[in-house]
Amino acid sequence: MSNWLEKHLPKIVLGPSFLVIILFVYGFIAWTAWISFTRSRLMPKYDIDGFIQYQRLFDSPRWEVAIDNLFIFGFLFILISMLLGLVIAIFLDQKIRIEGALRTIYLYPMALSLIVTGTAWKWILNPGLGLESVIKGWGFKDFTFDWVINPDFAIYTVVIAGVWQASGFVMALFLAGLRSVDQEIIKAAQVDGVPTLRIYTAIIIPSMAPIFLSAFIVLAHLAIKSFDLVIALTGGGPGYATDLPATYMYTMAFSRGDIGQAASSAIIMMLVVFAVVVPYLYSELRNKNDQ
Amino acid sequence: MINNINNTNYTNLLLRFLLYFILIVFVLYYLLPLFVMITTSLKSLEEIRTGSLVSLPRNITFEAWGTAWSSACTGIQCEGLRPFFWNSIFIAIPAVFISTLIGALNGYVVAQWRFRGANIIFALMLFGCFIPFQVILLPMARILGLMDLAGSITGLIFVHVIYGIGFTTLFFRNYYVNIPNELVKAAKIDGATFLRIFWSIFLPLSLPIIVVTVIWQFTQIWNDFLFGVSFSQAGTQPITVALNNIVNSTTGVKEYNVDMAAAIIAAMPTLIVYVFAGKYFIRGLTAGSVKG
Q1: Count: domains in chain B
Q2: Is residue B78 part of a domain?
Q3: Do the domain assignments include residue B67?
């Protein structure tokens, strides 16, 4: 008996986690997917009724705003975070004496809750008392900076706060990448008199391609899941001008009582995440198996 | 790395100066929100209205901190952040402990006791780390209701453990996979059992990865908002939800200094962890985000 137990203990240990993952991840995804094909409103109904929820979703002007915002936010957030992260990483890689201290400062936002970040930026961007009044105080009387309450520009304030939070992390990724480039090649290029800028553009940055991909995946993943930051910074407003798919889903699920819409928007979010992550995971796993 | 030491001419000195200047400008950019939060929290409302966002407080007052901690309103309740701070502690500590323990055992099995299908189980777990949690919110709310855990601290612990084990397993698996399998084989020949090998050989080697995992899980759970706002009710909300309620509470005069003090209080535990164990935090961040 104890022999049998000893033999099967590894399976018995992993078993419960396996069941939990199957039920609470995959089972739940299946449930949500099922509901997204029904006419469920306040209460779930289980009669399949085609793509009615998806039709409603894509007919909804609010969802259209959410998707547009996801593209605007995602594009700018990823682009600016990567550029800023790369520039700071390269600058930090020049034998800076206080590098450790600087790195600590650039990275601390990642330890903060996005609700804290959103609260802080909401205050800084406050039109009456924030940055606007500071710059007015410097003598620029006509200066206005009311993005956070302006429906056309509010989404850009989410970009500002998001970049502030995540760019230090991208910097850390790139810095690790710069350090892993083969120093012999760089030395050889220097001996040959290749200018520094050219060494970066022709040797170092191309060899960091996998890290660019990782950073992109991480940032895209963060962008699609963004929820806390919008809630804290703009609450999705003014109106629903800064809605993202995540806030749309939450509103439908918990304040509108429209489970069908919540389920279908959640499924779309998942498909977007998978479109980004699956090719990456696949290639990662394949590379590992090749080795 | 690229630095021509032989060139000590003016241009080089100037470039060097410029480099430090730019790096300091970035420092200011990253520190600005923290600076503004701290200074605003120490000002009186009167000074906030008449003064400037970026000026230092003329008369330092800790009144806002007191209000934020014990009497600010989060909706109809006016007890400050204190009860919610404790909620977060009571959620985070058991959830971190349980998910780390499960992750260590799972990682040990996946890395060292491979059986047929173990890799598939691991892949399924890994994949689960990537899903946007919106996709499980609705069924989870129902299941918590059926289990009679809706709106309870226990329910939140349960949710955090379930969606934490993917990451904790990943961390431990990646750590244990570097320990040679011969160790397990030798111990087995000497008659050591599965649990005995874990307890006497693997656990003593695991301190660094335990620290990384605990810090990662603590930061994740402390900073969580989505689960907190979806699965809690008036008395069981975690601190992030309470902070958001204080900031968006519409009753009475808008007290910006209280908002900022509340934000700092909510950020304090993870900031302290970052300051004292930043190295481990960053290690978790890179491992957790790149590979998981």
Answers
A1: 2
A2: no
A3: no
Residue B106 is nearest to which of A14, A106, A108, comparing CB atoms?
A: A14
Instruction: For residue A10, give the nearest of B115, B135, B137 by CB distance.
Output: B115
What is the total count of domains within chain A? Answer: 2
Report the CATH number that the domain containing residue B155 is assigned in CATH. Answer: 1.10.3720.10
Backbone phi, psi, residue B168, to 5°: -65, -40
Asked if residue B53 is part of any domain, the answer here is yes
The pLDDT mean for chain B works out to 87
Q: What is the pLDDT of residue B228?
A: 93
Close Cβ partners of B234 (under 8 Å, ≥ 6 residues apart): B75, B77
Q: Which domain CATH number covers A82?
A: 1.10.3720.10
Task: Give contacts of A281 with chain B, Cβ < 8 Å.
Answer: 126-127, 130
User: Which pLDDT tens digit goes with each residue over B234-262?
Assistant: 889 999 999 999 888 766 678 888 889 99
pLDDT at B101 (0 to 100) = 95
How far is Cα A209 from Cα A142, in angstroms, rounded to an integer?
45
What is the value of ipTM here, to two decimals? 0.87
Instruction: Give the structural domain span for A22.
Output: 1-29
Please give the Cα distance from B280 to B209 (Å, whole number): 9
What's the domain range around B103?
83-247+260-291
pLDDT value for A1:
55
CB A228 within 8 A of CB A115: yes
A79-114 pLDDT, tens digit each = 999 999 999 999 988 888 888 888 889 989 988 999
Considering only alpha carbons, which residue of chain A is nearest residue B3?
A94
- Token reading at B282: 């960053």
Question: Are B153 and B284 part of one and the same domain?
Answer: yes
CA A11 to chain centre: 35
